[in-house]
């Protein structure tokens, strides 16, 4: 999904302005999230960016609020209170421009401020904490943690060097069900390792959807069925977010080619499209003819070879693309039926598109 990002400033009376960033999905808004973190404390961590973009991929508007100044794991109570007020200002901005935040996420010191502010955000429907310190929270919170009445996901690393795991235990015991705890084994407080940040981002997106994203009442209009949108995620040099109809996932180059391996490569996607089309076409034909086809498996490989090495190719210079497709058919099929299915495989629409004249029209967006 294509994601737009814009910076905003939260102005607080008698206090320093706070920087905030809004991640916006390209498609319909499914839900609104308020994400409190401490970017200054996290140093080079890009966990807030990854979490925000993972949620935007799922249709969330995400306001990422940086709450610096609480680097001490036992922050001053007044500092926690002032940062909580800043989050309420962020929620007011969301409420004015979109709608009130339904998902609340706090990382580190941002989580402490968020837990204090949560009781004053009645529209909340789910809450996530990552490495949350509880000092001052319980006495400052506008409502007791036991009375939040909100599904809570507690994420904490047993090796957190800033906030001990006992904080997670206390928090988990204080809140009521539904609640979940996930141990971020081996992760540091800042989630500096890419794999830790990506894991947390995907976990939150999946968990939150259960509580704050309503199931569609009806399928999208038919003209949207073949809509494909691709956009950079800025997670790495090549990582892309793909919206294919109703489905969203990542594409990337392998590490050996300068990518991060966050998803299939463009050629792997191409082979996947051909393989899926082949299998679907065979299934449709077998069902129509009532053949005893119990399973289909298609394995594909792509390579470029010199044209002069291809005996049956019209092109004689330069390189050509060669796709090897091996089709495995399961079931009690006669040799004649198997041969006919091989012929049908060559009639799949994607196969025919790849072999036909294709015109690609490109233009710049308005």
Notes on the structure:
By secondary structure, this protein is of the alpha/beta class. It has three domains: 3-212, Alpha/Beta hydrolase fold, catalytic domain (Rossmann fold); 226-257, no CATH class; 266-355, K homology (KH) domain (GMP Synthetase, Chain A, domain 3, 2-Layer Sandwich), CATH 3.30.300.20. It contains ten helices and 13 strands. It has helices at residues 39-42, 47-57, 77-97, 109-117, 137-140, 165-174, 194-212, 266-289, 335-345, 349-355, and strands spanning 3-10, 18-25, 31-37, 60-66, 103-107, 126-130, 152-156, 179-183, 228-232, 240-244, 247-251, 295-306, 319-330. The strands form three sheets. The protein has an eight-stranded mixed sheet with strand order 1-2-4-3-5-6-7-8, with helices on both faces. Strands 9-10-11 form a three-stranded antiparallel sheet, with no helix packed on it. Strand 1 and strand 2 (18-25) form a beta hairpin. Helix 2 (47-57) packs parallel to helix 7.
Structure keywords:
3 domains; 33% helix; 8-stranded mixed sheet; 3-stranded antiparallel sheet; GMP Synthetase, Chain A, domain 3; alpha/beta; 366 residues; Rossmann fold
Provide a concise account of the structure shown.
It is built from ten helices and 13 strands.
Computed over alpha carbons, the radius of gyration is 26 Å
Number of separate helices = 10
- Domain module count: 3
CATH topology of the largest domain: Rossmann fold
User: Structural class of the secondary structure composition?
Assistant: alpha/beta
CATH architecture of the largest domain: 3-Layer(aba) Sandwich
Output the helix-strand order: EEEHHEHEHEHEHEHEEEHEEHH
CATH class of the largest domain: Alpha Beta
What percentage of the residues does DSSP assign to strands (E)? 15-25%
């Amino acid at each position: 999904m294509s994601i737009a990002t814009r910076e905003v400033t939260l102005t607080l009376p008698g206090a320093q302005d706070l920087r905030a960033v809004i991640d916006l999905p390209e498609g319909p808004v499914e839900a609104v999230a308020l994400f409190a973190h401490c970017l200054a404390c996290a140093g080079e961590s890009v966990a807030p960016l990854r979490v925000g973009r993972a949620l935007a991929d799922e249709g969330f508007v995400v306001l990422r609020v940086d709450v610096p100044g609480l680097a001490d794991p036992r922050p001053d109570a007044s500092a926690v209170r002032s940062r909580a007020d800043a989050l309420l200002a962020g929620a007011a901005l969301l409420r004015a421009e979109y709608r009130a935040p339904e998902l609340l996420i706090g990382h580190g010191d941002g989580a402490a401020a968020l837990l204090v502010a949560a009781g004053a955000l009645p529209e909340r429907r789910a809450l996530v904490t990552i490495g949350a310190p509880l000092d001052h929270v319980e006495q400052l919170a506008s409502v007791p943690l036991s009375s939040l009445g909100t599904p809570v996901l507690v994420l904490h690393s047993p090796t957190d060097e800033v906030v001990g795991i006992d904080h997670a235990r206390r928090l988990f015991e204080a809140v009521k069900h539904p609640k979940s705890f996930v141990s971020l084994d081996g992760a540091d407080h800042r989630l500096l390792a890419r794999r830790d940040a990506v894991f947390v981002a995907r976990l939150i997106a999946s968990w939150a959807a259960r509580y704050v994203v309503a199931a569609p009442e009806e399928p999208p209009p038919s003209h949207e069925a073949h809509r494909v949108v691709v956009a950079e995620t800025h997670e790495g040099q090549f990582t892309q977010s793909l919206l294919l109809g109703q489905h969203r996932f990542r594409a990337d180059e392998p590490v050996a080619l300068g990518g991060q391996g966050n998803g299939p490569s463009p050629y792997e996607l191409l082979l996947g499209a051909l393989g899926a089309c082949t299998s679907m076409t065979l299934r449709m034909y077998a069902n129509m003819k009532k053949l005893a086809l119990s399973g289909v498996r298609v394995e594909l490989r792509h390579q470029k070879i010199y044209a002069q090495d291809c005996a049956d190719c019209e092109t004689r210079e330069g390189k050509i693309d060669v796709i090897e497709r091996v089709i495995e058919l399961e079931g009690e099929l006669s040799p004649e039926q198997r041969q006919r299915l091989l012929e049908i495989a060559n009639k799949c629409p994607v196969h025919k598109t790849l072999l036909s004249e294709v015109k690609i029209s490109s233009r710049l967006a308005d």
